[in-house]
Fold this protein.
Amino acid sequence: MLLNFSNSTKNRLTSIAMLAKLVIGALFITACSPNKKEPLQRFQHAAQGSYAGNISNDGKWSVVSSIHHGISVWNLEKNALVYQWGQQQNSSDNLVLAIDISNNNSHALTASRENFALWNLNSGQSEGYWKVRESTIRDITVSNNGDYLLIGKGNGTVVHVSVDTGRRLEFLGHKEKVNTVDMMPNGRVAISGGNDFIAYVWDTASGQVIYQFNHTSRVSKVALDPLGRYVFTADSMKTAHLWDLKTGKLISQLKGTKRHEVFSSASFSSDGKTLVTGAASSKVSIWDIASGKRIANWHVTPKEAKRPTGAVVYSLAFSDNNTLITSSSSGYTELWQLPKTQK
């Protein structure tokens, strides 16, 4: 059936069609545009970028390694430089490439490829300096009060050191290179992940395996919730899981992750509802632990350069219920507003 419209009706229909095209175009642009977000505050703690960085779990302290400033310790509440340490940084082989701050802010552990040092954050003094006998250091972590140190190595071993007694326990569960380690604040439970596609949770007193989490590619990041609730494991092929630390059962798998989204840092919220991750691609993401859904994401600020650059997110911490602090290879420490769903 042929329909005839008046000129006024035709004009209205043409206007509606044009409006629909504009709306569709706007939706397309919005969907394809990168998620841009500006920090509430930005501090430059390494002028030419950094090699490693760590933020305390309460967001009050930061330790950064760079070739120009050595190891610098910052009070983030005042944005004040507190200490500058040196760890034989006169050659590229001795650059500090791994840093960890204890959960109670008493100590920091720093490591190059071949040696590691324990520092007292209250006095600013060194409490020990060690050199590995074989292989290279891949990742480190320190317990409360600097009592225990955990060193993941390239030969597949993980060394648990009792500082007071000098006891060294070697965990030999991995068959290939260890990439990532973490430890509970009391030093009694550790986790390690390696190129053998496995993440192990194990007892540091006996070396016995508590849980074994299998992946389909090399395990690139692991993290333990300091309150003893969760385990995070992620591999290099976009698979990331959240597990119950008490039972070893799967809670959720992170949804919508991509192959290039290799996680470089992770932190749990104090209320146990969310996980925040940083990636080697400069991406920060907020996740719902129960469902594995991504709540929000954005990118940290890259290093200033003539050519476009990226930034590895070394560390992140909830400073309170409303804000998040990040440290990245760009040399910036940044404060971000969390989405309303996070409050």
